[in-house]
Design a protein that fits this description.
Strand content: 15-25%
Oligomer: single chain
Number of strands: 26
Length: 536
């Protein structure tokens, strides 16, 4: 850890690049968000399971935000000491010799590499029901804690897709990078991954978190080429200063340091304040996860949960993910309520989310037994199944829009309960009583109604973190503060404010218990039909 400078307040430019677009913030080294901007990025969905974004749009919207904040004079530019980037995780950027991307980024939602991932993960000793070769599975789990997804929704699947379907791009690729590492390359001119950001390549030995390294056998098993993989640096390391060109463009000093990037899962956990072992946080943004830090390496293939290197050096975190959460609301707005079609009713009002909350609040708990399945892009935890699809279930002639909206809120919460049960089983040996409470962050936590629904459905106290939508930039800021010596990890929980704590309402217990039993039953009864409709 570097020695912190003494004297005047210092600040970090923290970036949170979600799928919807980047937030850029000035964060004090104590974790206070001074000012922030937000921009939208285009999500490019391609028939056949493709999901891409333009890295140049990432760079443009992020640097525009930085210039705007610096020019506004919120703090003296000379007091900005670092840039810390957090982004969507499990995405892939193919980078050429000039340090620029060769094609759109293939992001975490993309499953076009599934046939190739199935080939490299299968074998003569394929395990019935899951398809993994037993010997390969044991090797991956022993060394990495996880393994390539057979859905193709990770860098192994992405790289194999490019290798086999875009061979011209693959041949010209110098290095493959995660989104946070690509942005850091643009900032510093140095291509490197951290011990945690590289995890999804499933080619590193993570058994000793202080010395994570590539393993040639794992690389061969994944079908990757070693010479196209980045340099590795420790989690939380200082990558280096920004280039003179970047400094001049952004109005910053050339001594501004860039910290190794983190995935959004890591930064959200840090920004939620849940940095101690077994303290849980729930994030609801485009996707969702429920996680905690743990002191052990473990994998449960039955629930698709593992503990992986976290954004805190020498610590693991419980890796869970559900594909669609808050994205279901934007899907509802864009494709059902205010679509651009022959029945177009105009653009959605600016307060559309507030209106949806009011509508949902007018409906009793349980939505008259109308249910919403948020599997609009498949699922990952506790089932790894890209063929699942969603929509409303058990609608009747009396089902109106308010009921449909309430059911959507509850459907995401029921999905979160599915994930909670798996996560609590994962840590049961150490926390037999389950999580004491859950810190709630992300855009979904801004809704008081959703907080209460989560408390009722999960049957756990939900703590609404202050400025929950800024948890990721706050987490990125904290990471830089620790890396540069301004804070210790143990200082962070005391710097997080909780706006409200929502206790479970016992009157709704029986209703949600019944709906959850039906919710999981719908999956069990229909998974073969989904596979028939949406499989390869």
């Amino acid at each position: 850890m570097a020695e912190a400078a003494q004297g005047a307040n210092k600040y970090v430019l923290a970036v949170d690049l979600g799928t919807g677009g980047p937030k850029v913030a000035i964060v004090s080294t104590d974790g206070d968000v001074v000012a922030h901007t937000y921009a939208r990025n285009q999500l490019i969905l391609i028939e056949g399971g493709g999901a891409e974004q333009d890295p140049e749009e990432w760079w443009t919207t992020i640097t525009d935000g930085i210039r705007q904040l610096v020019a506004a004079g919120h703090v003296p530019a000379a007091d900005i000491v670092a840039i810390s980037v957090s982004t969507q995780w499990m995405g892939t950027v193919a980078v050429g010799d000039d340090g620029r991307h060769l094609m759109n980024a293939v992001i975490w939602m993309d499953n076009r590499g599934a046939p190739h991932a199935e080939k490299v993960t299968g074998g003569a000793l394929a395990i019935p029901g899951i398809g993994y070769d037993a010997r390969k599975l044991r090797t991956w789990l022993s060394y990495t804690g996880g393994l390539p997804s057979r859905t193709g929704k990770d860098p192994v699947g992405h790289i194999l897709f490019i290798k086999h379907e875009r061979p011209d791009v693959y041949a010209r690729t110098k290095v493959f990078l995660e989104p946070m590492d690509y942005l850091n390359l643009r900032l510093t001119g140095r291509a490197a991954a951290s011990f945690d950001s590289i995890t999804g390549y499933w080619s590193t030995d993570n058994r000793d978190l202080s010395a994570v390294h590539y393993d040639d056998r794992l690389i061969r098993m994944c079908g990757l080429d070693r010479d196209k993989l980045p340099e590795l640096l420790p989690t939380g390391a200082v990558l280096g200063p920004i280039t003179a060109e970047v400094a001049a463009d952004l109005g910053l000093g050339t001594d501004v340091q860039v910290i190794m990037g983190t995935g959004d899962t890591a930064s959200a956990g840090i920004g939620s304040g849940a940095v101690r072992d077994f303290e849980a946080h729930l994030y609801v943004g485009t996707s969702s996860w429920l996680s905690c830090h743990v002191p052990f390496k473990k994998t449960d293939i039955t629930s698709n949960i593992t503990s992986l290197p976290s954004g805190i050096p020498n610590r693991y975190w419980v890796a869970t993910e559900q594909d669609v959460a808050g994205k279901a609301l934007s899907w509802l707005i864009d494709n059902v309520l205010y679509p651009s079609d022959a029945l177009e009713s105009g653009a959605p009002p600016e307060d559309v989310l507030d209106r949806l909350n009011v509508m949902a609040a007018s409906v009793p708990a349980g939505s008259n037994n109308t249910m919403f399945l948020p599997w609009l892009n498949g699922e990952r935890t506790p089932v790894d199944d890209h063929t699942l699809r969603g929509g409303w279930y058990n609608a009747s002639l009396t089902t109106d829009r308010s009921v449909m909206v309430r059911a959507l809120f509850e459907g995401v919460a029921l999905n979160s309960r599915w994930m909670l049960e798996a996560a609590e089983r994962f840590v049961k040996k150490y926390r037999p009583e389950g999580f004491e409470h859950i810190n709630f962050v992300g855009g979904g936590a801004r809704s008081d109604l959703w907080c209460q629904i989560m408390a009722d459905v999960l049957d756990r106290p939900i703590r609404q973190v202050h400025d929950s939508v800024l948890a990721n930039v706050r987490g990125a800021g904290f990471s830089a503060s620790v890396a540069l010596g301004y804070l210790r990890w143990d200082d962070i929980p005391g710097k997080i404010a909780i706006d409200a704590t929502y206790e479970p309402n016992p009157a709704n217990r029986a209703t949600y218990d019944t709906l959850f039993e039906v919710f999981t039953g719908i999956y069990k009864a229909n998974k073969k039909l989904f596979a028939r409709l949406n499989g390869h």
